[in-house]
Amino acid sequence: MGFSVRNMGSVADLILFNAKLFASDSTACAVAIQGSQIISVGSNTEIVNLLGKSTEVVNCEGNLLLPGFVDSHCHLLAMASTLTGVNCSPNTVHSRESLIEAIKKAAERTPQGHWVKAFGYDERSLNRLEHPTRWDLDEATIHHPVRLDHRSGHATVLNTKGLEKAGILSDTPDPIGGVIDRDHISGQPTGVLYELNNFLRDAIGDTKSDEEFKTGVQRLNQSLLGNGITSVNDAGHTNGLRLWKTFKELREANILSYRVAMMVGEERLQEMEGIGLSWGSGDSYLRIGHVKLMLTMTTGLLSPNYEHLVEQIIRAHTAGFPVAIHAVEQEAVSNAVNALLHSPSVVSRTRQISLNSTDNDASPMPIPRDRIEHCSECPPSLLASIKRSAVVISTQPGFLYWNGDRYLESVDPDLLPYLYPVGELSKFGISLAFSSDSPVIPPDPWYGIYSAVTGLSEDGKSVTASGDVKKRQGVNLEEALKAYSYGGAFAEGTEDLKGHIRAGQLADIILVQTNPMDSDPRDWLETEVLLTMIGGQIVWEKPV
Question: Which helix or strand (DSSP H or E) is residue 156 part of?
Answer without folding.
Answer: strand 155-158
